[in-house]
Design brief:
transmembrane; 4 helices; Monooxygenase; mainly alpha; membrane; transmembrane helix; single chain
């Protein structure tokens, strides 16, 4: 692995899992309090473009990291909606 690949791997790892703490916090608290799903939804939407870009240039690293990130971001939005509905019923 050369320096370019190492930097790309580290950047992909960091940006992919940046949204994970919000998802984990929401799941632990079982609450949407203090969370705003807009950023996750916007980020996830644009990461879909990164996946398409990765396919166009044939970069498996870009595709892999951004597919994982899309899943994390939309799980965050889904968890927010789920907990918000529960809170509205209570």
């Amino acid at each position: 692995m050369d320096l370019t690949q190492i930097i790309g791997f580290a950047a992909g790892l960091g940006t992919t899992f940046a949204a994970l703490p919000d998802l984990i916090a929401m799941l632990k608290q079982r609450s949407s309090v203090g969370m705003n799903p807009r950023m996750a939804a916007i980020t996830g939407t644009f990461q879909i473009l990164w996946v398409i870009y990765g396919m166009l240039i044939g970069s498996s690293n870009i595709i892999m990291w951004n597919v994982i990130a899309v899943v994390i971001n939309y799980l965050t939005v889904g968890a927010y909606v789920h907990f918000r509905r529960q809170e509205a019923r209570s």
